[in-house]
Amino acid sequence: ATRYRYYRKHWFSIVIDADNDDLFMSEEQLRHYCVHGIELGIHGRTHRAFIHLSSSELRSELEDSFNWLKSLGSMPAISICFPHGKYNEQVIKLSQSVGQILLGVDCNTLDSAVFRRVHVTEDYNV
Q: Can you give the C-alpha Rg of the chain in angstroms?
């Protein structure tokens, strides 16, 4: 949470989050999900669109996220959901060196290596 807030302030000048209390799960909660078979995927540590990063920045973004997820006990099959749904050939190539499943946006994708991301919602009135 601290690192996320730093990047939000540093890159986007966002100082206040809408909901500070429940914005993030703790690492203990994330480990609990991993132990129970829930996959945690890479979405980047700074949430910048991957197409705006240099190769070295993107590699660092992916590797740091991958290593953090592994330290939590994440399963070997790591998915990557592109921030803002943005990707290009370079993003696909570098992402495939880290992740096995690439997710785009909620519409048909332009590349067969990238799957369509689908949002799942919960019905709280059950």
A: 15
